[in-house]
Amino acid sequence: MKRLLKHIQQRKIRYGILLILLVAYYFCLPTPIFTDPTSTVIEAKNHELLGAKIATDGQWRFPETTEVPLKFKKCILQFEDQYFYQHLGFNPISIVKSLIQNIKAGKTIRGGSTLTQQVIRLSRKGKKRTYSEKLIELILATRLELRYSKDKILQLYASHAPFGGNVVGIDMASWRYFGVKSQQLSWAESATLAVLPNAPSLIYPGKNQEQLRAKRNRLLKKLRDASILDSLTYKLAIVEPLPKKPFALPREAPHLLDFLARTEKGNRIQTTIDPVVQRQANTIIKQHYEVLRQNGVHNAAMLIMDVDTRKIVAYVGNTPTQVKHQKDVDLIHAPRSTGSILKPFLYAAMLDAGELLPEQLVADIPTQIADYQPENFDEQYDGAVRAKRALSRSLNVPAVRLLQEYGLQRFRDQIENLKLKDINKSADHYGLTLILGGAESNLWDLCKSYASMAATLKNYTKNSSRYFDKEFSEPIIKSKDSLKHGTLSFEKPIFDAGSIYLTFEAMKEVNRPEGEESWEFFDSSKEVAWKTGTSFGNRDAWAIGVTKNYVVGVWVGNADGEGRPNMTGLTAAAPIMFDAFDILPQATWFEKPYDALTEATICVHSGFIAGDYCPSSKTWIPTSGTKSAACFYHPLIHLNKSKTYQVNSSCESVSEIVTIPWFVLPPLMEYYFKATNTTYQPLPKFREDCKVTNQPVMDFIYPKQHGIVTLPVDFNGETTSLILKLAHSKPKTVVFWYLDNEFIGQTSTFHEIALKPQKGTHLITVVDELGNELKRQIEIR
């Protein structure tokens, strides 16, 4: 040991220099050796190419390949470096042969480089091909051999070799010149690409065909001579045609590509997209676009999601329209007015809170709340309608009244739990219009919410009536990601399973679009819970449907916000949605979550919990619904013996009075209800000799209290009249009308009166002949 130390001490300068050289050698190769920008590439779940974006330097350079195709590997080794797996980064024999030939020729005619050296040359692009540069390449090549395996070095070469024009790497070259994945290349195609890095200019489409064919065939012959190819394969390979023109890359999901490129720029992303469903979805959107554009509707988007995994199956961000119609806008993430698409969330929330029952009657009458006056789409009123029918028919007035009853801020908090990111303002900002499209959301968030509801219901029955605490989660678009359900418990995530089930049951009853009216009579039909939405001015048309396995969401409209007549969720978006369900596997309907439901006795007429005097029936309601109010629409009334008149002790002997329950609606609800419900029987009139007290006998139909009325001018320049309307439980009763305490007329049977008041605030008073009085204050503009 002492002798060794003495030896080093005597020659410390030499060893110092050697140490410096070794350190320099160790660090001479940069990490990574390639820093060129790469294309953003997206693949389907089976690795099929969906699309790619060119790299920022203008080159089509895919991210480094993970596996060099066997045929290309055989070809490139035979053509460039037959001793690749034997040398240490350089081939001395080849170098000497090249040096002799270059000296004889007086110029560089042969390189003698190994594939390892060529990898180094590619990484040092722009360097002149000199002998000093050759020496540097040789040193770096040996260092590369020490750092990486042979297969890795081959991957680096295949990924960064030039293939003509702005095409770099085997993956891009195989798509560009042959329109297939590199693993699908034939022997002839692999040989063609193997000879290109040596002379990439030969591939210029339509030119240099004979030179390229000669080089390819010489390589194929070498493969045959080396017994890599048999004679038949060789004969078939040499007659294969050369590429005539470059192929366009697939563009199956261009908007998804742009979406992922924001966070995954330059990466290769394997998505969750099913390529077959994606292509079919593209076709469906294209077919409907050809029809929609006849009405000046140019844009549409569709999202298909798997309920169990929350994976995106198909992503169509827009139609194949023109640039002037903003075809590049990704409308899956664009915030748009929601129309009625939020109504099922309110319905489920009220069921869950025990404040609504599916069969319960809700008011559908002219309504004014402060300065807001909602109207149904058809501008008609039912007076009273069952809650589930109000949802399935998407009636606006009942929805607004229910939202006011449930609480605007309370519902806004529920929306917060759903994580609809574009609904980001306060409840006061939206007001009651929140339920009718006063807010904006996007297809991505809405579909995830519907899918989470479906999964909550499905997993509840699957997991012994328990819930996952992370059921409401983000959609998954990358194959490497997976859904994290969280832990199981008996605590509901947002809505309980019973409320969701009954919401979906109501949504199944939505009237289907034209051509689908008799869907329930066909065995092959799919049971779909679905909801449409149409924003103000027909700017946005929505349709979102749910089955046990899938959610399909569709938005239709114009990206610039232009509304079009007759464009509604039912007519424009729903047909696309049902076409999408037709390409998906059929599924059974959700199992009934018995543990989250209770069989209750409800009133046949009102849908409330049955009172003492109600005709009743059994039905399933959410467990929380048992605490809801009992029916108050069946008072006991007193009739004469023939049951033709109401009577009381002021006009009839108690022994002659018959007392029975009677289904009675308030006057304004009754006014509209009896027009569409012929079986409804109004209360019999009081006999003339009876004194009546404390009976709500009349109500205004129009105007509402503190209403603001604008009177338009007709074609003759005359101000149109204001029509006042009243509902009376005894229509033939005479009603006296007053404007600002001045008598203006009287009505009987049909209580309507026209007048032309001046601008300003006015008081309308009505008094019937029995002394009942009502007042309304309005403002005329």
Strand order of the largest sheet: 7-6-16-15-14
Distance between the termini: 110 Å
Helix/strand/pairing class, anyone? alpha+beta
**How helical, in percent, are the residues?**
25-40%
E-strand count: 28
Rg over CA atoms, rounded to whole Å, is 39 Å
Oligomer: single chain
Our estimate of the beta-strand percent is 15-25%
Can you tell me the residue ranges where pLDDT is under 50 for at least 5 consecutive residues? Answer: 518-524
The general outline is elongated
- Helix segment tally: 22
Query: The biggest beta sheet, please?
Result: 5 strands, antiparallel
Query: Mean of the pLDDT scores?
Result: 88
Q: How would you explain this protein's 3D organization?
A:
The protein is elongated and about 135 Å long. The protein has a five-stranded antiparallel β-sheet with strand order 7-6-16-15-14, with helices on both faces. Strands 22-28-27-24-25 form a five-stranded mixed β-sheet, with no helix packed on it. The protein has a three-stranded mixed β-sheet with strand order 2-1-5, covered by helices on one side. The protein is built from 22 helices and 28 strands. With 781 residues, it is α+β, with helices and mostly antiparallel strands. Helix 9 packs across helix 10, helix 13 (275-292) runs antiparallel to helix 21 (569-582) and helix 19 (443-462) packs across helix 20.
Name the descriptors.
781 residues; alpha+beta; five-stranded antiparallel β-sheet; five-stranded mixed β-sheet; 22 helices; elongated
Topology:
Elements: H1 2-10, H2 12-27, E1 40-43, E2 49-53, E3 60-61, H3 70-80, H4 92-105, H5 115-123, H6 131-147, H7 150-160, E4 167-168, H8 170-178, H9 187-195, H10 209-225, H11 231-238, H12 254-261, E5 268-270, H13 275-292, E6 299-306, E7 312-316, E8 336-337, H14 343-352, E9 361-364, E10 383-386, H15 387-392, H16 396-406, H17 408-418, H18 427-430, E11 440-441, H19 443-462, E12 467-468, E13 488-489, H20 497-508, E14 529-534, E15 540-546, E16 550-557, H21 569-582, E17 597-603, E18 616-622, E19 636-639, E20 658-661, H22 667-676, E21 698-702, E22 707-709, E23 722-728, E24 735-739, E25 742-747, E26 752-755, E27 760-768, E28 773-780
Parallel strand pairs: 1-5, 3-4, 22-28
Antiparallel strand pairs: 1-2, 6-7, 6-16, 8-11, 9-10, 12-13, 14-15, 15-16, 17-18, 19-20, 21-23, 23-26, 24-25, 24-27, 27-28
